[in-house]
Design goal:
34% helix; alpha/beta; 9-stranded mixed sheet; 5-stranded mixed sheet; UDP-N-acetylmuramoyl-L-alanine:D-glutamate ligase
Length: 356
């Protein structure tokens, strides 16, 4: 097996991380989090550990949740969560830039305030006649079911990205991260950034994000994958990708290798694929070889809920990646961050990051 090498850093690891080194695009949401019973899941025909877009029969939920005991409002959206986790580990503000779309309302103001206080340099496209997107985060026995009503989040347009001041931010960045959810929001913006990354030999990264993505947005995912230098996903998402492409296998190693070896535009970089699998070893294909990284299992009594674990993992991973650290360090920091997240309520973090 070919051993994992150090990442090709765009600057010396001994230097301070430049502001705006990482750009993320995604769907900014306000999470409405509540601990619920199985009867609530059954009422809305939901699974105990899933992520879906709201359908008509789910909409009454958003009127019901705010009235429930223990409701919490947390800034969310997959990409924004990743950048918040990244900033928490890095510990210096404005290293990550976020583009997305919100409404001109109180939820939007809350998102702006909370994301900025977390260190993320947010540049929202604001829609006066749309409401800020929300996500029902339903916590049941340490697991979470996510039900998203995108609202303004799905209204992002490429003209916002193409504003001189925003495209300058893109050009100055060295790393780009897109959640799978954004595939349906603004493919032209996504592909513009993907092309820029390939042409300038910068890192473009995508997360599968949810099992429905490879089915509902197969074309958009297939268009983005050739430009993807690092692909993230978990077991169910990887299996869904295999099913959507008729691969007739749920062997994670086989799926990871196929994903890594599929068509790639920028031939200067091989594709890295990272597949997490709960407490089971993380499967990574990198530089042509496949490797497994063990995961430390936490005692069940310290786990509050698993919401945000995957985003926390990626945020920690990216914090070491941009420093030019070896792959092993990125995996270890990702695991550390994910484990810190699941000991909190929602995708939140302790006051200080203790990762060394």
């Amino acid at each position: 097996m070919k051993r994992c090498c150090k990442w090709r850093a765009s600057y010396s690891p001994t230097m301070s991380i430049p502001n705006g080194i990482l750009v993320g695009m995604g769907n900014p949401l306000l999470d409405i989090q509540v601990s619920i019973g199985k009867d609530f899941l059954d009422k809305y025909q939901l699974k105990g550990n899933d992520a879906i877009l709201a359908e008509k029969h789910h909409l009454p939920m958003y009127q019901e949740l705010p009235k429930m005991e223990g409701v919490q409002y947390i800034p969310g959206g997959a990409t924004q969560n990743v950048l918040r986790a990244f900033q928490w580990v890095v510990g210096e503000s404005k290293k990550a830039i976020f583009f997305g779309s919100i409404g001109n309302d109180e939820f939007g103001k809350t998102l702006t305030k909370e994301a900025t206080s977390a260190g993320v340099d947010v540049h929202y496209q604001i829609h006066d006649n749309e409401k800020t997107g929300v996500c029902g985060v339903l916590v049941y026995e340490h697991h979470r079911s996510l039900v998203t009503d995108l609202l303004a989040a799905q209204k992002y347009t490429i003209d916002h990205l193409e504003k001189t001041e925003n495209w300058n931010r893109v050009e100055k960045a060295q790393y780009y991260y897109i959640s799978g959810y954004f595939l349906s929001t603004c493919p032209p913006a996504l592909m513009k950034v993907a092309n820029h990354a390939a042409e300038t030999n910068k890192l473009f990264m995508v997360n599968l994000s949810a099992p429905f993505i490879p089915f509902a947005h197969k074309k958009e995912l297939d268009d983005a994958l050739p430009y993807t230098d690092i692909l993230f996903g978990n077991r169910t998402e990887a299996e869904a990708y295999a099913d959507s492409h008729g691969w007739n296998t749920h062997d994670l190693k086989e799926i990871a290798l196929k994903l890594a070896n599929s068509e790639k535009v920028n031939k200067k970089r091989s594709r890295t694929v990272v597949i997490t699998n709960d407490e089971h070893p993380i499967i990574v294909v990198h530089d042509g070889g496949i490797e497994e990284f063990p995961v430390k299992r936490l005692p069940s009594e310290v786990i509050v809920d698993t919401n945000g674990a995957g985003d926390g993992f990626v945020g920690g991973f990216l914090a070491e990646l941009v420093k030019g650290k070896p792959l092993k360090d990125s995996i270890e920091c990702g695991c550390y961050t994910a484990q810190e997240v699941i000991q909190q309520s929602g995708c939140t973090f302790p006051k200080h990051c203790q990762y060394k």
